[in-house]
Specification:
The structure holds two protein chains of two kinds.
Chain A lengths: L5 E10 L4 H17 L3 E17 L2 E13 L3 H11 L3 E8 L2 H6 L3 H4 L37
Chain B lengths: L39 H4 L10 H5 L11 H4 L3 H16 L12
The chains are: A alpha+beta, B mainly alpha.
Chain lengths: 148, 104
C-alpha cells in the first residue's frame, strides 16, 4: 500500500564560509537524504549568499538553498535529523505546502529572478514580468538588509 | 435638564440611551479614526503569503522590527494571521530581524 505523497518545501542555510564545491556537496547530501527516504526532489534553487538580519553562530551571512520535494509523511523528520547532524547546515525550515500554498507560492525557480522591493511577488501561471535583466551575479545580491 | 447618566457635559446630539465611544466624539467627527482601508492582500488576491518574500514582509514590520498591528495597516484578520506566520518564519531564517535598532 503506497503512502500518500505530500509536497514540502525546505529552506536551509549552508555555512557561507565553505567553497562552492563544498557547498554543492552539502546540497547533494541533502538531496540524497530526501531520495533515500522515499522522496523525490521537485525543484531546488540555490538562493545564494544573503546577509543575515542577526548574527547566527557568530556569522553574518549564509548560503540559502530552497528545495521542494514530495514524499511520504515521515520524510520530514528524517530530513531534519539529517540537517541536525550535518554541521554545515546552520538553519533549516520545512513547510508543508497545502493547496493554497501550492497555487500561489514563490517557486524556487522564481526566487532566482527575485523582483525588486516594489513589484508584487511573482504569481503562479503568469510569466514573470520583466524583472530587470540582472546578470548572473544576482546570487551575490548586495547587502539588502538594512540594519534599521 | 434631566439628569444624565453618561458622565461629563452633554455633547453632540441629544440621544437617549447609551452613548458609546471615546470622549472626543462630536457631531462633526473631525478625527480620522475610521479610515475605510481595505486589506492590500485581499486587493491583490493573494491566497498565500510567502515567508521568502522578505522585501514584501518588511513593509508590514515596524522600524524596530515589530509586527504592525492590523488596525493600523488595515489588513483583514485572515491575512494578518498568515502574515504573522510568514514573518515569524522569516525571522527564524534570519531574513527579518527579531529586533532592529530604532532610530535614536
Amino acid at each position: 500500500m503506497t503512502q500518500t505523497k505530500h509536497t514540502y518545501e525546505t529552506t536551509f542555510i549552508v555555512n557561507a564560509g565553505l567553497d562552492d564545491p563544498q557547498i554543492d556537496a552539502v546540497i547533494e547530501k541533502a538531496k540524497e537524504a530526501i531520495v533515500k527516504n522515499g522522496g523525490e526532489v521537485k525543484d531546488l534553487a540555490k538562493w545564494g549568499r544573503k546577509r543575515f538580519a542577526y548574527v547566527i553562530r557568530r556569522k553574518n551571512n549564509g548560503f540559502f538553498v530552497v528545495c521542494e520535494f514530495t514524499g511520504p509523511g515521515d520524510i520530514v523528520a528524517k530530513l531534519e535529523r539529517h540537517f541536525q547532524l550535518d554541521d554545515n547546515v546552520i538553519r533549516y525550515l520545512t513547510v508543508a505546502l497545502d493547496k493554497k500554498a501550492l497555487k500561489s507560492r514563490i517557486r524556487p525557480a522564481d526566487l532566482l529572478k527575485q523582483p525588486t522591493a516594489d513589484s508584487p511577488p511573482p504569481q503562479v501561471g503568469t510569466a514573470v514580468p520583466a524583472a530587470p535583466a540582472v546578470p548572473a551575479a544576482e546570487k551575490s545580491a548586495p547587502l539588502t538588509q538594512p540594519s534599521h | 435638564m434631566p439628569p444624565r447618566r453618561m458622565g461629563g457635559p452633554s455633547r453632540g446630539p441629544q440621544r437617549g440611551g447609551f452613548q458609546r465611544g471615546g470622549p472626543q466624539r462630536g457631531p462633526g467627527r473631525q478625527q480620522q479614526q475610521r479610515k475605510k482601508r481595505t486589506c492590500r492582500f485581499c486587493d491583490s488576491k493573494e491566497t498565500y503569503i510567502d515567508y521568502k518574500n522578505e522585501k514584501r514582509l518588511q513593509r508590514c514590520v515596524s522600524e524596530q522590527g515589530r509586527i504592525i498591528p492590523r488596525r493600523i495597516t488595515g489588513t483583514c484578520s485572515h491575512h494578518q494571521r498568515q502574515l504573522v506566520v510568514a514573518i515569524k518564519r522569516a525571522r527564524h531564517l534570519a531574513l527579518l530581524p527579531f529586533v532592529s535598532d530604532a532610530v535614536s
